[in-house]
Design a protein that fits this description.
9 helices; mainly alpha; globular
C-alpha cells in the first residue's frame, strides 16, 4: 500500500463542485431573474452535471470496487462504501427532477428552489463525508496502481470535453493545484490549455442564460 497517493485531483474536483453549488444557490434566491430560465439554458448547469457524472461514475466503476477488494475482511469499512454508493444514488434523482421541472412550461420557482436546496445539502454532505472518512481510507489501503487506474478511467470519461472541463476544474484553484494537475499532460495539451482552452473558457459567462455548452 502507499502512504503517498496524490489526492490533489480529488480535492480539486470536490472544490469545483462546491463552487458550482454556491452559484446554484445564488441563482435560485435572486429576485431579478428566472432561475428556471438560467438553468435551462446556462452552460454552468450542463458543465456541473457532466463533471459530476464523470466523477461519480468513475468512482462507482473504478474506485469503490478496488477498495471493496482490499477491504473484504473489514466489514465496518465495507459499510462505509455502501454509504458512499447510497449517497451517489440519492443525487441522480434530484438532478433528473430538476431537469424535468426545467422542461415543464411553467416551472414552479418554489419547487425548483427546494430541489436545488436538496441537491446542495445532499452533495455537500456527501463530499464532506467522503473527505472525512473515505480519503484517509484510500491513503491507507489503496495501491498506487489502483489509484492510477481510477485516474485513468476518470480522464477517459472526460475525453473530448477536456478543453472545457479542465479549465472548469481549475477555475479558482491555487497555483500549486494547477501545476500539479497540468504537469502530467503531454506537451501539446499543456500548450493548448494555455493558448486556447483557458482563454476560451474565461470568456464563458457560464451562469448566464443562453450560454448552452452542449
Amino acid at each position: 500500500m502507499s502512504d503517498a497517493l496524490d489526492l490533489t485531483a480529488m480535492y480539486a474536483m470536490h472544490d469545483a463542485l462546491r463552487r458550482e453549488l454556491t452559484h446554484l444557490d445564488r441563482i435560485t434566491i435572486r429576485a431579478d431573474l428566472s432561475a428556471a430560465e438560467v438553468l435551462a439554458t446556462a452552460a454552468g448547469w450542463q458543465l456541473f452535471k457532466k463533471a459530476l457524472h464523470v466523477h461519480h461514475t468513475a468512482e462507482d466503476d473504478a474506485l469503490w470496487p478496488s477498495l471493496r477488494q482490499n477491504l473484504v475482511d473489514r466489514p465496518d469499512d465495507l459499510v462505509l462504501l455502501e454509504a458512499m454508493e447510497a449517497e451517489h444514488a440519492a443525487i441522480d434523482p434530484l438532478i433528473d427532477a430538476i431537469d424535468a421541472l426545467l422542461a415543464a412550461p411553467d416551472a414552479d420557482p418554489g419547487h425548483l428552489g427546494g430541489l436545488v436546496d436538496s441537491l446542495t445539502v445532499g452533495l455537500a454532505g456527501h463530499l464532506k463525508h467522503e473527505e472525512d472518512a473515505v480519503l484517509p481510507l484510500i491513503q491507507r489501503t489503496l495501491t498506487a496502481e489502483q489509484w492510477a487506474h481510477f485516474g485513468e478511467v476518470h480522464v477517459q470519461r472526460i475525453g473530448p470535453d477536456a478543453p472545457v472541463l479542465l479549465p472548469w476544474l481549475l477555475d479558482g484553484a491555487d497555483e500549486s493545484t494547477v501545476e500539479r494537475l497540468l504537469a502530467p499532460l503531454p506537451g501539446p495539451a499543456r500548450s493548448a490549455y494555455t493558448a486556447q482552452w483557458l482563454p476560451v473558457y474565461t470568456t464563458l459567462d457560464r451562469w448566464s442564460p443562453d450560454t448552452a455548452w452542449a
